[in-house]
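Page 47, continued from p. 46.
Same chain as before, 190 aa.
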Amino acid sequence: MESALHLFAEHGYARTTIRAIAEDAQVDPALVHHFFDNKEGVFDAAVNSPLSVSSIFDQLPPDMADAGTAEAAWLARTYLSFWESEETRYGMTAIYRAGLADSATSERLRARVEASTKSWAANSGYKDHPDAETRAALASGHLVGLALLRYVLKVHPLAEMDFEEFLAWVVPALELRLSTELEPRSAQKD
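Result:
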């Protein structure tokens, strides 16, 4: 799986072949076909093994039930730690690169993001708000965008920041995104 993750992350889904995965893993391509059938099977197994972001949100710590700064900090640290970790970074990169560049995998990326968003909305301190899923989707977009800039595109100065400094910038913006109260649209027209 490590060979597959590295190749998918480095070359994307479309340019990674079973032959290249087998060569990198120093096994016969027939063995890869035997266990995974095709490239899609290898991709699914590779990106799903250590990376279940949505399951993390199913177990939101009880002290996070009070929406606010603590929840924004927990959410940012938890999600971005998947990108910081050597163990999961290649998988995260592979998922996003493939999902953004290849229509065959974009549906899987969308489904993963929506599952994580719904899971967090259902377990967050905002779960009783009628717009909990909207808040979660906006927070998700905020974090995904920053992750792409820092870890995939390596945009300066974000890519060079220490993780704690990066979080210090991210958390207040995320807290604002989560806690903003909007007037109903009908009230804005009056």
